[in-house]
Design brief:
The chain has 7 helices and 8 strands. By secondary structure, it is α+β, with helices and mostly antiparallel strands. The radius of gyration is 16 Å and the shape is globular. The model has no long low-confidence stretch (mean pLDDT 91).
Amino acid sequence: MIETNRLFLRPYKPEDAEIFFKKIHTNYEHLQDYFLMLLKTNKSKVQVEQYFLQKQYEAEEKKGFAFGIFLKNNDELIGHVSVREIDWRVPKGELAYYIFKEFTGQKYSIEALEAFRDWCFTKHHFCRLYMKIAPDNFASIHTAEKCHFVFEGLLKHDYRKKEETLIDMNIYGYTGVEKNKV
């Protein structure tokens, strides 16, 4: 488990399945642009339980780590953060996150992302993390920059938004050096 001033981040437990299911479907419109596959593969509580088992297996095999983001004061699930596409030869991985709509604008994303980023570097000795962010996703760009991720370039025609529109994606990277320059 990772703790911050207002949050704790931890792997999902089976008892989180019902609330996770409710929250992602309550936030369907908020998540559909960039997390449509998550929504499509978790259309029931049973599918969410299977998703959690898959994430547990990935963590055991060190293929990825997925944590729920919870408020410290009441244990409410407010978001998700993960690292995937891990290449242990470097080691590096792709960081992804979301905060449910009703909790945006309170800087929870920055707090969670910094803590998870530092956990990846400290516990697993990552040398690089990167994020793919749509050029028009200003909130995520702001979060990435506040967490010392640096714009590295543009991937042309890299993602299908809502599985329809092909869009470019910005790459933001973090190696640990960036934090020390500020």
